[in-house]
Each structure stands twice: as structure tokens, then as C-alpha cells.
Amino acid sequence: MTKKEPVLVVLAAGIGSRFGGGIKQLAKVGPSGEAIIDYSVFDAIEAGFKKVIFIIRKDIEADFREIVGDHLEGHIDIEYAFQDIDDLPEGFTSPKERTKPWGTGHAVLAIRDIINAPFAVINADDYYGKEAYRLIYDYLKNDLKKDHIAMVSFILKNTLSDNGAVTRGIVKTDASGSLTGIEETKEIIRGADGVITGFYGGDVVLNDDDKVSMNFWGFGEEFIEELKTGFKSFLSNVSEGDIKAEYLLPEIVDKMLKENRTEVDVLTSNDTWFGLTYSQDKPEVIKQFAECKKKGIYPDPLF
After folding, report:
1. Measured between alpha carbons, how far is 104 from 58 in angstroms, rounded to an integer?
2. What confidence tens digit (pLDDT) does each residue in 116-158 have?
3. What is this structure's pTM?
4. Which residue range is the domain that position 149 belongs to?
5. Cβ proximity of 34 and 42 under 8 Å
6. Distance CA 128, CA 268 (A)
7. Which of 171, 173, 208 is closest to 191 using CA atoms?
């Protein structure tokens, strides 16, 4: 039997309230006006991906197609899915006051009627580097086992910011390399003495080479059924008046892990991660891509 071709799924529906002004998924950061998402798709194509599904909001569809989708046509097969806060199972309604989407798990549910292959999930506004896409494509194409999930982890020192403290999920694994847990550690910063510290139930000292999760996942197509069932359970437990509760992929995977219903295989990229969280991040991201051009890592323009 021919193995199914993995699909790249890009989460691009978030509001990005911390970014301030404009749609951060579409921010022009490359030498020829490319968005981070352009580099992600370029790297995915190089790795072997032949199809991408963009999960967006309906209200940004025209801008998204004009800035990203249109110039990718002919380079990779493209489909769109739409995250809508009112896209809920029968019997549930969204509070009138709610404006925030229901989280990354709900976003992935938007592909439920169009996905029929294993898939990788990434954030639109994160640059992951080339190695991550090679690792996840090869895993999904050749090594994915039933009831297994993959996570591409990164090295902590390659994800720190020069502009202040960050929050990272510190990855814990067993001797075989399978995930045992993720410790969501806040206020991570390198001090003047070179020591990296953070806060996880108290002050902690971290190592340069600790592995961290940056929301880069690989799933079998059966994961969609898990999301459907889990989302109903999640909604049933949302407190009345709570307009910020989110159905999040890391928490979904963690719950499955604790219930011994999955194994998470940790793949590790040695590339440098960077992204757009705050508007102040934009100049540094522009600088990084200018360096990539200078070193010949990417053509200019990309497409």
C-alpha cells in the first residue's frame, strides 16, 4: 500500500493581541516583502511536502490570499480552512461576549472534513528553520506508528530573546526519547553571568541544551477524532461566563499522555527559532532574514 503524503497545516487564525496593529501573520519581514509564512512553506516544499492547508479567519481571507496564497499557487497544492468561534458541536453556543478564538485544538478541527493523511501543525508567525521540516516529513512519511504523536523540539539556547524574558515549555523525556511531560516555565532569561534562569513552581536554573516545545507537531489523521471527542468534553467543563477558555494542543496531548493513550516521539532540531510575538520583534526578524539572504540560505525573492 502506498503511504499517504503528509500535509502541512499552518495555524494563521489567531488575533495576535500582543502584537498590536496589523495582522502579524502577514507582516512583511523578508528582503522582498515576504512573510514568515512564506519561508515556512518554502522550507516545507524543500523537505518534500506537496500540500498545505492554511487555517485562517474568514475576515482575513482576501488579504491572506493576496499577500501569501496567490504567489504560492503552482509551487504547492493549497487549501483553506476557517476557524470560527461559532463552529461548535450541536448543543453548544458561543457566549455573546466572546471574541477570542477557542484555541489551537479548535483551529485544527477546522480541517476535519478535508484531511485524510498524516499532518504537521505549525504556527504562522514562527520561523522554525529547515531541519524541523525534514525531520517531521520523514517521520510522518516513514516512521509514524498508530497512536503515536511527534513533537519537533528545539534547543533552549536557540530560542532565547535578546529583548527580555520568554516562556518556554521545557521538554522532559525518558531514556528512549519519548515525551514524559512539558514544564511550562516562565521568565526565562540569560543573566549577565551567562546562567539561564526561569520560574516553574519556584526559581529554576536551566541548561543551554535543554529541549523546548515550540508548538510544532505531527499527527496521524485519526487525531481528528480525538479532537472532536475532546472538544465536547472541554466545552462541557467551561465555566459559565468564561470567555477566555481555550482548547490547546499541548494540553490535549498532555492529557492523552497522562491517560496512557499515546506516545509522543520527540524529534530535535538544532536550528535557531525566532518569531513575532510583539511588534518590537519585527526589526530583529527583518535583520535575521537579511542575514539569511546574505549567506545564500534563501533566494531573493523566495518565489
Report:
1. 16
2. 999 999 999 899 999 999 999 999 999 999 999 999 999 999 9
3. 0.93
4. 7-153+211-294
5. no
6. 11
7. 208
